[in-house]
Hints:
InterPro entries: Glypican (IPR001863), Glypican_CS (IPR019803). With 285 residues, the chain is an all-alpha fold. The protein is built from twelve helices and no strands. The model has no long low-confidence stretch (mean pLDDT 90).
Amino acid sequence: DLQICQHRAPTCCTKKMEESYQAAVRRERTQSIQALNFELKYMIVGHITAFQEAFESLLRFAENRTSSLFETAYRPMAKEAAEPIKELFTDISLYILGAETTVESAVLRFFDSLFPLVYSRLINPGITDLSEDYTECLRLTRQDINPFGHYSKNMVTELSKSLWASRMLSQALSLGIEVINTTEHAAVSKECSRALVKMQYCPHCQGLTLIRPCVGYCLNVMRGCLASVAELDAHWRQFISTLEYLTNEMAASHELEMALAGMWSSINEAILHAQLNGPQLSATV
Length: 285
């Protein structure tokens, strides 16, 4: 009643042994692939961890530097500016991690919140506390009035370049782990299982436990078993090429460290521009 290890010569195998062999080849194949993938996965996870730690460190540095700017140069509104600053850097962090948001919306929302503070604390410091309606009116008209000149848009442009590359790299590395995990747990087909048993264990039924299959036979069987996974090869090579492109971009014109470190300067220039045009802004408002 043997289904796989059928020989004309006497055999010591039973159908139950064949079933045990099939379970064994499935287990061995999974363990082999996991062992081969471990080093690659370990390396990618290490890159993800290192990247996230470096990014969070840069983000904290940039946020602390921006907060210090307000505490030293713009003390009258430092306390009220703390929340918009925190929201800006939280939004940037979420963007890098793949949230459905944009750098532009985060930056412009920050400047929307900043305008009422600049208007009431720096341009017209004699104004008493603004009503909620008046404050909201200033927020909503910020883009029309454009109190910060080209500095707000420049900040969007500079951050978008570097943060886009960083976001893509973070997502690409995570995608690599998903692909590896998927290939690790790819199901062994019935045909593959039978071919592996025939190659590895059927000789045992004749007492030939030390004989190993020739290389050509082994490769042919494994090509058949891994045919579905092999289709990933071209896409995986393209994936690696894209990773190389992103890392080169981050090291060149999309340098993350420079972009984040320069945020406080861009904000400062924007506020100074608003102060210099204070009388005109007040008339426009």
